[in-house]
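ingest -> validate -> predict -> emit
validate: passed (alphabet ok, no gaps, 118 aa)
predict: started
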Amino acid sequence: MSEEREAYVPGPRKNHPKYKKFFDSLASGKKPSFVAAQLRAETGKPAEFLDFPNEPAVPQNMGPQAQQALPRKLDPRYKMYFDLLTGGQVRSFVEQKLRQEQGKAAKFLDEPDLPADK
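emit:
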């Protein structure tokens, strides 16, 4: 699956023009499952994207070479999985989620400091 690059917009994702309406919907009391389904349909982002409103919406454009050098634990594609582990989530759950959503083996989580694309 090829993702097109979004322009970097400074600030948290809750203020990003593309995603603000989803966070506003949550704040107005809409069901999280409904908002998550809308988010996925319109943007392709997983529901967990809404769990981190203060994270950047997209990484600052550092060029392809610099992005490849990001460690797995900081790469925006995988950061959520390492955050779940750090937050105390059961490892087998995180491994299954990583396998289903990213197609990565459980061993991927054993080396968080390796470059994300290795």
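The mean pLDDT is 82.
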